[in-house]
Amino acid sequence: ATFPTLESTTNHLCQRHHMVINFEKLGWHKWIIAPKEFRTNYCKGDCPFSLMAFFNSSNYAFFQTLMNSKTPEIPKAACIPTKLSPISMLYYDNDGNIILQHHEGMVVDECGCG
Amino acid sequence: TQLEEASLLQFMGLSKVPSPRIAQPVPSILMKIFQERQKAVATGHFQKLCYVKEFGVPGNLIRLFQDQGTLSNPEEVAQAPPCTRKFLLFNISVIAQDEQLMMAQLELRLRLNGYDALKQDLELMLSLVQGPSPQSEQKLLLRYLPWSQGVLHVDLLDVVKEWNSNPQSNLGLVLELLPKGHRNSTVTTHPPDICDNWRQSIQASLMVVTLTPEECPHFPHFPRKRR
Predict the structure, then answer these.
(1) Nearest CB to A93: which of B14, B22, B34?
(2) How would you classify the pairing of strands B51-52 and B57-58?
(3) Which among A33, A97, A27, A90 has a CA at the least distance from the CA of B22?
(4) Disruptive mutation site among A30, A100, A108 for chain B (greatest number of B CBs within 10 Å)
(5) In chain B, helix, strand, coil percent, each to 5?
(6) Using one digit for the tens of pLDDT, what is the confidence trace for B34-63?
(7) With 0-12 CB in 10 A as exposed, 13-18 as middle and 19+ as buried, what is A59?
(8) Is the ipTM of this complex over 0.95?
(9) Could you tell me if A101 and A76 are in contact, meaning their C-beta atoms sit under 8 angstroms apart?
(10) How far apart are CA B26 and CA B30, in angstroms?
């Protein structure tokens, strides 16, 4: 939500993409009580030097991308999560006890170049 | 893939994929807290994840421990009627050293199928096991229950703190249930049902709330570290 909507021509640029993790497909539904699935995102896309400011990039990412233009062995800055949020999970442990815990860094809210 | 799965499970504090033999039902209060936390995350109120308003205590991790006493006490299995003593044991060893105990509540749920024919008030005594002999038991609670009452909650925070700091002291609890007024009676009142029925009529669980400083660094409950 932080970034303006990207046009279809900019789909290759760094941005978040929706991802749904279904615990039944992982075979974990017998012990994870809730949620049944959780919705998160992943980060994917290019980080071109000309748009680094737009992508909420770190200072380090600027330099790395600059170095890449001079020395191709050094990779470009990567499209990575820059803001994460937790989810709560309710599950059985190995002894059949019930656990309610929130786990940090489970949902990607924003992506950027770093 | 198995290696990655193991890493993720370790991150969740689990050594392997749990396969609960008997999936105990989830209490409605836990489901309610889970839903409240989902709402808090959706609205960005992450501080609410470190406070359990339903219990009025700080905490980010809630566990409901199963009673494992029946499995580990062969004497109880062999006990003859009236078999009014029930051994309770909670394996709390999964609580990490850096977790702060905020609440420990024993829930005793009485389904009076074994005793309902008596229609008498009950006398419930809870004791802490401190050694091999019954004489070493420390009485924690003596309470009378109307025969129709189904649930009893007992605060065990101090007891669980001691078990957590000194795991060898966790020798369990003994629950004794008698028809009111029969404790010192010379006449033995035999309940109408057998021991299995009696054991099934009582379900015990231990709800524990802990707070992890790393997960809740902003929570003001913790004393500040010296700089």
Answers:
(1) B14
(2) antiparallel
(3) A97
(4) A100
(5) 25, 25, 45
(6) 999 888 888 888 777 889 999 999 999 999
(7) exposed
(8) no
(9) no
(10) 7
